[in-house]
Amino acid sequence: MPGLNSSLNIALSGLQAQQSALNVVGHNIANVNTPGYTRQRANISSGQALIQGDVYYGSGANVTSVQGIRDRFLNLQITQETAKQSGAETRYTAVNSVSSLLGDTGTTGISAQLQAFFQSFSDLAARPEDTSLRTNVLGKAQNLVTSLQTQYQMLDTQRSNADQAVGSLVGQVNTLTTQIAQLNQSITSASSPDANNDAIDQRQALTDKLASLVGINVVEGSKGEYQITLDSGAGVLVSGSSSYDLVAKRPGTLTDNYLQVASDMGGTLVDVTAKIKDGQLGANLDLRDNLLVGFQAQLDQISAGVARSVNLTHEAGFAQNGLTTNQSFFLNASVANGANGLPTSIAATPALKSGSGWTDFYKGMTKLLAVNSALVADPSLIAASANGSAGDNSNALAMAQLGSANATVDTGSGTTGFTGAIGALITDLGTQTQNYSAQSTTQQHLVSALQTQRDSISGVNLDEEASNLMMLQRGYQASARFLSVISTLADQLMTQLGR
Prior knowledge:
Mean pLDDT: 87
Radius of gyration: 38 Å
């Protein structure tokens, strides 16, 4: 029944509602510089009406909820684009580093070393019996091999760095997924999916950080929990309050013993190495298993082209004694005499090779390439003569002309000359660098734009909070004034009744 007591309750509810709303405003102001914080708003509604006869009387105000002002779709967009941006930036940084190291410039580049090598045959052709010129040929050959192997080793080092990053990133991913699962538990334990705003903010910040490490898909359940899978859907990372680790392990093989990444689904390991596409983890796997391997394959093709073309020509010529022939100029360093190994087997074409095809046919050629030690020990064995006659230089000229020949390098899709092969390698490096630079920049701008949009919706605006503060202050003062009036009326009533 309406009366002084109910009026006192109305005044009290007004004070409590305004005080609670003031606390929310103060919380917003305190977190104005907190990364990832979503501003909150107290939702105030009128209390349940009291009925007297046919008349409904209000019973004051209550804070029904504290709402976080967020756009869930926008948050999911930021998460997805963050993974792409992080992956592109990681790829660009690595490829740009390789490009600066592998760039064919100066006298130490592959092109300069190849030119010097074939020029040494031209010099030898001028005086085929000159021992110093024969020694010079061998020196230039060894310089070329060293240059090729140095570049190849640099790419191997980059692959090893990427592999080490994989192990580190897997550990970071597992830490984040564990924390996200714990926050899922806190969020679903609340009275409603949107009640625990600070936990929701913390989870979103962790999810964005997780996306920078590995590409993910995020789906929000009916209770506000996150279900997180790898971007390809190949493995579950978080399901409600449970998290599932990624496991980095080595296959134990002698070649390319790099870390494999598996998803641990309740004790069952599923290999997802090739299924991780974005984020730093996906980028490092792509660099290690595809991009850097592709550059190494091009070096192997160039090395195979040098070995094959020079060997075929050299084996057809005669040493300085006019008798010795069929000597390989280059050999496989790991196989005695090069028998059944590189480079003597490279006379075959990839089309005749079974197995994984041309991409692996010349694999490791650069690392195995070596100048025939017999020639190094006795430069007179260099086959400068085509017919065995003293002073003949025909074979030396033929080997010199290989430097400008058109069909010396087998690319798997055709043949090209050394200039074309080296040009393709440098062009590929430059193109990859430009592509990932543009992609990284574009994604960075997109993520920044989305974050700016999110800040405009969810960020704390101090001017707006100051306005709310004044409004709530007036409301609190008005409720206090109303309470004072009711108190005065009660005093008067008690005074009159006490006479």
